[in-house]
Specification:
The relative contact order is 0.13. A 4-stranded antiparallel β-sheet has the order 10-11-14-13, with no helix packed on it. A 3-stranded antiparallel β-sheet has the order 1-2-3, with no helix packed on it. With 222 residues, the protein is mainly beta. The chain is globular and about 55 Å long. The chain has 1 helix and 14 strands. It has one helix at residues 127-138, and strands at 7-14, 19-28, 31-36, 50-54, 58-63, 66-72, 91-93, 101-103, 167-171, 174-179, 184-188, 197-201, 207-213, 216-221.
């Protein structure tokens, strides 16, 4: 299965169940990380919310505010090879010279339905943020009305161990966050590498992966 660009989200037809399955994918090197729901997308006249997020460690798919699928990936997301975002269809380059950009000749995947309140972020969203976006949409509010908590200032302690939290960040970390649903810790690395930054972890927590994605530290745990 290919991704003609950097990422895509679509509905995949399952011939065995005659159903449409929500699916999201990102290109990583020569491979593709794809998360496809095992539950059919609820087609009909009602509006539904679909979203995905890639945080440097996991690709997660959400339908109506709830996680529908996830997959781990262990490489950086490819830079886009097409300088456009296509909504309602898949783009492709034909074999002419110079190549012409247009609907993909093999699988254009045209949207047979309506789309509203499309939004794109340059960072991975938490499960709580996606739930908040879904809740806002149900009440007729747009994505711009969802305000996330301001990041903690440098030198602060978040979820200190003394109050029962599992993690604490001290020093030059910024934008430190813990997604307890996905079990992912994220923190922006300090621009000044001479400044110390520490992460304290409560006994009983097992670290699974530690990765630097750009200027962000991403840790998965259980």
């Amino acid at each position: 299965i290919r991704v003609v660009g950097q990422f895509e989200i679509n509905l995949v037809y399952d011939i065995l169940t005659d159903s449409l399955m929500p699916s999201a994918a990102v290109g990583i090197g020569p491979n593709v990380a794809r998360a496809t729901s095992a539950t059919a997308f609820p087609v009909g006249t009602a509006w539904h919310h679909i979203a995905f997020t890639a945080d440097g460690a996991q690709l997660r798919l959400f339908v109506d505010g709830n996680e529908a699928a996830r997959v781990d990936y262990f490489a950086g997301i490819n830079p886009p090879d097409i300088s456009y975002i296509s909504i309602g269809g898949r783009l492709g380059l034909d074999a002419s010279e110079p190549p012409v950009l247009g609907p993909d000749a093999l699988a254009p995947n045209f949207l047979a339905g309506s789309l509203d309140d499309f939004a794109l972020w340059s960072r991975g969203l938490t499960a709580e943020s996606i739930q908040a976006l879904y809740t806002a949409g149900k009440t007729g509010k747009g994505a711009e009305t969802v305000v996330e908590p301001k990041p903690a200032p440098i030198g602060s302690v978040i979820e200190p161990l003394a109050t029962g939290g599992k993690f604490g960040a001290v020093g030059a970390f910024t934008n430190f966050s813990v997604d307890s649903v996905a079990k992912v810790i994220r923190a922006d690395l300090p621009a000044d590498k001479t400044k110390p930054a520490f992460l304290s972890i409560k006994p009983g927590v097992t670290i699974l992966t530690v990765k630097v994605d750009g200027n962000q530290l991403v840790i998965t745990y259980k």
